[in-house]
Write a structure and sequence with these properties.
heterodimer, A: 900 residues, alpha+beta, 5 domains, six-stranded mixed β-barrel, 28 helices, 23 strands, B: 115 residues, Arc Repressor Mutant, subunit A, three-stranded antiparallel sheet, 4 helices
Chain lengths: 900, 115
Amino acid sequence: MKWLRRLLRRVANLAAGRGELDERLCEEIAEHLALQTEENIRVGLSPDEARREAKLKFGGTESMKEKYRAERGLPLIETLVQDLRYAARMLRKNPGFTAIAVFTLALGIGASTAIFSVVDAILLRALPYPQPEKLVRVWEKAPDGRFMNLADPNLDDFVSQNSTFADLAGYEYWRSSVAGGSEPVRVNIASVSRGFFQALGVEPFRGRAFAADELEVHGAPAAIVSHSYWQRSLGGAADLSQFHLRIEGAVYPVVGVMPEGFDYPPDVAVWIPRELYPELPGRTGHNWRGVGRVRDGITIAQARANLSAIARRIKEQYGKEVDLDDAAVVPLADATVGDVRTTLLTLLDTVGLLLLVACANVAGLLVARTSARRKELAVRVALGAGRGRLIQQFLVESFLLASAGGVLGVLIAIAVVKALPAILPTNLPRQEGMAVNMPVLLFAIGAIVSVAVSLGLFAAWRVITGNLQEAFATGSRSSTDAGASQRLRGFLVTGEIAATLVILVGAGLLGRSFLRLISTNPGFSGRNLITMEFSLPTPQWQQGMEESEVVRQIHLVEDILTRLRAIPGVETAGVAGALPVAAGDNLADGTFLILNGQNAPADFNEFNRIAQNPAQVGRAYYCVAGEEYFRTMGIPLIRGRIFGGQDDWNSPNVAVIGETLARQRWPNQDALGQVVEFGNMDGNLKPVTVVGIVGDVRASGLDLPPSPIIYVDYRQRGMKANSSPTIVMRSAAPEGQIVAAARGIFHDLAPDVPVRFSTFAEEMNGWLANRRFLLLIVGFFAAAALALAAVGIYGVVAFSVTRRTQEIGVRMALGAQRGDVLRLVVGEGARLALAGVAIGIAASFAVTRLISSLLFGVSATDPVIFAGLAALLSLAALVASYIPARRAMRVNPVVALRYE
Amino acid sequence: MKQKTDVLQGTLALMVLKTLDVLGPQHGYGIARRIEQISGDLLAVNQGTLYPVLLKLEQEGAIASDWGASENNRRARFYRLTKEGRKQLQVETQDWEQTAAIIGRFFEVKAEDLL
């Protein structure tokens, strides 16, 4: 423990300052010398002689004091403090250099920290459930590898026959109207099967889970609500027994509240037991999403093998009645993040490149400064500074720079993360956890340290390898070493340009995709469309709709539509069960039967039997619509007619189909007049006759080809199968005014119906948000990298001009023209740019492949983008070298020759 | 002329401890004088090296120091052995004697003893 005590004393001395002990030592030395002198006088020396002898005997005081001080304090820390002071002084003396370096690093570190906080929240952080690694999503797998949701009987088989799951449950969620709270609202509700909450391992924090009598057909209805719904609509009341929610015609007493932060499936406000309603018998009705928790000691691969075996058994047993032949089991964390992973990893890579570019820039500045400081360094070596000491000095300087940049960067990151929710796509999962928290700070610190160490070592590189004594022997400017460091900077700038080109190309490809996407014709005109999503009180779980219900619906909707059309400025208004290309995937798709003169099936067993003949089935989107819908959306009629006044409950049911479906399903015959059975979508087995063909719409997204679609008349079928009944209204008048008037009409005619007003442009934006966000961020990074690269080239060329002033003077004296000088200087920048661009193109070819899944209508090696951005970057490089070249052209040979 | 032995710090520290043990509290000059007397002119030209050693021993807690009056009534720093220093002296004395004894035996050995 001796060393510990000594260390503590040293630290204490360090804190106390050097004064006290120094004084004590001086006094002791004085006394020592005085005593020795007296002694010497006593033996007979003269006073002068005695003093001299005493000093001689004592030895060198300076080296002794050095030792004494070394013993007293902590030399390492003292030199560190010295170096810090020195470095701070140096940085203060060069405010321009310091500002550029700090700001550049702040940009790099800030951007990477902000992006990391997103990646951390979405990709890295564990899901907020106990033992989240055991949670999986479960699907049926089609022979072509497609993942499908689970059909009722298949889900039951998976649940009852597996031996690897602790809990396995099905769930589905949709937007619906919930009344019974403070006001009726449109929210997501989820129907969840037994074991759902157990699988996730979360219990209600208030009230209870579903009881046994609530988990059987026609049992007691019950609802569990989310924490935020409880707070917002139920006032956070402790007594739940007073609340009864009215959802789709049934009444559900509230029995429990989930804890804050429980958000699965996302944005769900109310959970109800799936078991309350009878199962659908078909094994191809993919109605349920599967989630489960594997048993302790079972791997996910084992669980997958187990469900695969069950799926194969189902296939063997039911043959054509099923369309699965395998099962898919994916860790919940991966399934939740889904295709966002590519987006995030692209962002992370881009920001990494940007950080590299920023570092290269600062490294270039440091190398230039090191070479300017060679004389100073040589003097320090001559005075006895060791190599390690010099490296320490460089490291301290780069640490100071990196920390300043890092602190600024973290502040930037905090601001950015605060602002992010405004630009983040709303469909990005798990973004609520985004914050500059401990792991993010650790990341920032890691970035700062690695930047500091690499920059410091890089700047010290010449010192470590070069021979410093040379700096004394040669003139500082013409030394070969300045040439070497110039080469090093050239090398850095080349790399910087290459990295910048990669970012530029990535941004370019994303940008071109985006332009392609928004200029794609969706098949309708989305401008000036106001949307009103509402809900009608319809029973969801019964088979088909009664005439009286349909008539009630028609009355209400037609009344509303008539009043809406009367608003001044409104051109047309129509209604449909769901919108194409909206933020949510609202149009349902399903399998229909082509009857070919056959009678319509009497029940669903017969339906399923006919469906086994592939020649008689087709697949299409199903949309319930009114006749004015087509005119309002601008969907053109191509042949036949659209719905009209003659179509009502008692007349034969009619359908209008999209061109693609007509071409796909009836390639060599007339689709008009074909009779189709699509009753599996709404439970009404009346067949429909195709009476018209309309233009295609890209219903499932602008990046996908037009989808086959069948429209049926809402006045014949009722508004039931689509979950988001929406009125669309075309008007060039100011939106606010129209919405206010429409709100009044809804309030008059249907005070209980919640309505969500929006514009079609907004709904589209929701769908485009993901791409827009990625493009925005990558575009910003590209611009930042371009600016940094330009500054980098400028720095190298400008330094080179200064260094070669004399040479340029000589050339001009010998007759070189201004044009020659221009070529000389710009040529240097151009060479660097060319090399960088060449490497950058090669690197881009390798890298852009990784983002090909994010592209649309443009190849990952699009020559226009590659050539255009290479040209842009080269142009920036030329401009950056032209500025110092102009200075070089104005060199006066007489002055330059004296220049040293 | 015989080369002056460069006193090892450890040895010097041990001498300091022994001196303080035998003579009681002493100022720096007194310790230097005593070591000089006993070891001949070992410390003759390098008395100053004593002070860093004194500081080291003090920081380790083997000795303590206080201001006091010297022979001619001026202020001087007096060093004294602490309890811990006494223990350290004992241990190191033993070590030293052991080492010296071993080395001594090696020096006494003649070629024929090893045959």
